[in-house]
Amino acid sequence: MSQTTPNLAALLPAARGKLVVEERAIPSPGPDEILVRNHAIALNPIDWKRVDFGIAVSSYPAVLGSDISGVVTEVGSGVTSFQPGDRVIGTASDMSTGNPDNAAYQTYTVLLASATAKLPDAVSFKDGAATVTAVSTGSLALFDVLDLPTPDSDTKPSPDTGILVWGAASATGAGTVQLARLAGLKVFATASPQHHARVRSLGATAVVDYRSPTAVDDLAAAAKKAGVKVIFAVDSISTKDTLPLVVDFLAKFDGPKKVAHLLQWPEGVAKPEDVEAAWVQGFRIWGQRRDLSVLVFNNLLSGWLENGDIVPGAVRVIDGGLDGLQTGLDVLRKGVSGEKLVVEL
Ligand SMILES: NC(=O)c1ccc[n+]([C@@H]2O[C@H](COP(=O)([O-])OP(=O)(O)OC[C@H]3O[C@@H](n4cnc5c(N)ncnc54)[C@H](OP(=O)(O)O)[C@@H]3O)[C@@H](O)[C@H]2O)c1
After folding, report:
1. pLDDT at position 323
2. Ranges of H-type helices in the chain
3. Is the pLDDT of residue 229 over 80?
């Protein structure tokens, strides 16, 4: 199919370089892929880490980014569940494939159909793009690493089963809180006080300020008062400052525990024998856990967004479209609080 808009891309010319917008060929979808004309691109911390540390960059010039929303313009020969004109969101797989056609920072992106969800009309492109990594990472943390029953499963956790989400104001933390609630878990969380009301509205039973010296004791007391045993944790921050507190918190409950950490377990942080911990591997959503991707992106996410079961967080639009991505990376590198940075095309 011929496309009327050229494909402009924000190219990273070299390691630690600045993005430059140039035209590249409009990609074509393979049999199990779709081509999307992007309308919003959401930024993730991994994007600036790829610039600074060369993570998951196979060659230069590179195209970064994984979270998009837009309109399908072409579908691969084996795709039956999407058609041109569909509004969609999806997680772009270039960190797995090494193919810049599968990256987000451009006008057109080739997505795996399995990693794409229809976007309800009531949800804007910018809000849709802002939910993508939150949902994919939260799903991997809960249903891959922690191996908890998915929300559609007939198996439900017992009503007194709890989970700790450390850093619930982060994009991934907020997604994890909502998915954990949908999976029937009681959620206990940490966040800065200005985000407590929102984190509670997403489904947390109790939230404490992670900067409080009594955060761990206060949260454990809240769980015990609610009659909940917290034996699972997702640490959305996963630094040498947060993981010891996560471990301390879990130590207040009997029995074996499981922790999903979003960054590599930091050197020097003790891991108790009764704690099984594993690093969430984001790329598994495009490969080993394509089954989970199909379940969440193809089967569940659209309905969750339609019904308000998954609510996008605060979005800050960075002006300039593709030209704004460099500013976005610079802002994100300094850190954000409870908001997702997005550019609109
Ligand atoms: N392994 C994977 O597959 C995977 C996937 C996605 C992301 N990640 C990584 O996971 C991390 C989070 O990503 P993200 O996109 O969710 O980040 P984000 O939204 O940019 O995180 C910002 C939030 O972090 C919170 N925060 C900072 N320090 C904290 C602390 N000590 N305790 C609790 N909360 C703290 C802040 O909370 P307040 O506003 O409440 O202060 C802030 O709102 C990044 O390092 C990212 O690279 C890994």
Report:
1. 98
2. 45-53, 94-97, 125-130, 132-139, 171-182, 196-202, 215-225, 243-250, 290-293, 301-307, 325-334
3. yes
Residue type, 36: V
What would the two tokens of residue 318 be?
Answer: 């960075």
CA 96 to chain centre: 16
Tell how far the Cα of 136 is from the centroid of ligand 1, in angstroms. Answer: 14
- What's the pLDDT tens digit per position in 278-324? 999 999 999 999 999 999 999 999 999 999 999 999 999 999 999 99
195 lines ligand 1 (CB under 6 A): yes
Answer yes or no: are the C-beta atoms of 162 and 188 closer than 8 Å.
Answer: yes
d(CA 166, ligand 1 centre) in Å: 9
Q: How far apart are CA 111 and CA 293, in angstroms?
A: 12
Cβ(221) – ligand 1 distance below 6 Å: no
Structural domains of the chain, with CATH: 8-131+283-344 (3.90.180.10), 148-280 (3.40.50.720)
| Ligand 1 center to 236 CA (angstroms) | 5
Secondary structure string (H, E, C) spanning 144-201 = HHCCCCCCCCCCCCCCCEEEEEECCCCHHHHHHHHHHHHCCCEEEEECCHHHHHHHHH
The gap from C-alpha 23 to its chain's centroid, in whole angstroms, comes to: 28
Query: Residue 4 pLDDT > 90, yes or no?
Result: no
Helix (H) or strand (E) holding 257, with range, is strand 257-261
Residue nearest to atom 4 of ligand 1 (CA): 262
Which residue, judged by its Cα, is nearest atom 6 of ligand 1? 137
* Residue 76: closest CA among 39, 40, 114: 114
What are φ and ψ of residue 279, in 5° steps?
Answer: -80, 130
Question: What percent of the chain is modeled with pLDDT above 70?
Answer: 99
- Rounded Cα distance between 121 and 33, Å, is 22
Cα separation, 14 vs 158, whole angstroms: 51
Quick check: CB of 175 below 6 Å from ligand 1? Answer: no
**Is the CB of residue 336 below 6 angstroms from any atom belonging to ligand 1?**
yes
